[in-house]
Amino acid sequence: MAPGEMRTVEWRGKPVWILKRSQEMVAALPKHDGELADPLSKRNPDELTPPYARNEHRSIKPDVFVAVGICTHLGCSPSTKLSPGAQPSLPADWPGGFLCPCHGSTFDLAGRVFKNKPAPDNLQVPRYMFAGDTKIIIGKDEKGEA
Ligand code: FES
Questions:
Q1: CA-to-CA distance for 22 and 126, rounded, in angstroms?
Q2: CA-CA distance, 122 to 137, in Å (whole number)?
Q3: SS3 35
Q4: What is the residue-level pLDDT of the chain in tens, covering all 146 positions?
Q5: Ligand 1: which of 79, 98, 100 to mutate, judged by most atoms within 8 Å of the beta carbon?
Q6: Domain assignments of the chain as residue spans, ordered by start
Q7: Which of 43, 53, 61, 62 has its CA 20 to 30 A from that of 136?
Q8: Catalytic residue positions?
């Protein structure tokens, strides 16, 4: 996948996003920690963030982000708003991420929810593992199946 490219696959009836983050996207992640509700993914870690994703980029490899594309508020599917900067329904300093069309929750490019939004938690990172450089297995990791 090319930097900035995103694909959606289905896993157990849920959309799972795979985003190949560019170097700029990865570098920008720490810059807005103060605006996030749970920047270090401490809430519900067993359910939402496997141990290998409890880091700033919420992923095994910094440039490859994997998440369940379902809002943690009431289950809508957030829209991709990957480009930074002002745009409708988003702040002028938008760093790039995802916008839930139902009630306006916003998530950064690591699926971390912004403060004071209806969604209580970051997007779920499913269990996953790499099988070689280009293949990702969703729903399974070294510790077994989800
Ligand atoms: S379902 Fe996403 S903000 Fe309500």
A1: 21
A2: 21
A3: helix
A4: 999 999 999 999 999 999 999 999 999 999 999 999 999 999 999 999 999 999 989 999 999 999 999 999 999 999 999 999 999 999 999 999 999 999 999 999 999 999 999 999 999 999 999 998 889 999 999 888 87
A5: 100
A6: 6-145
A7: 43
A8: 103
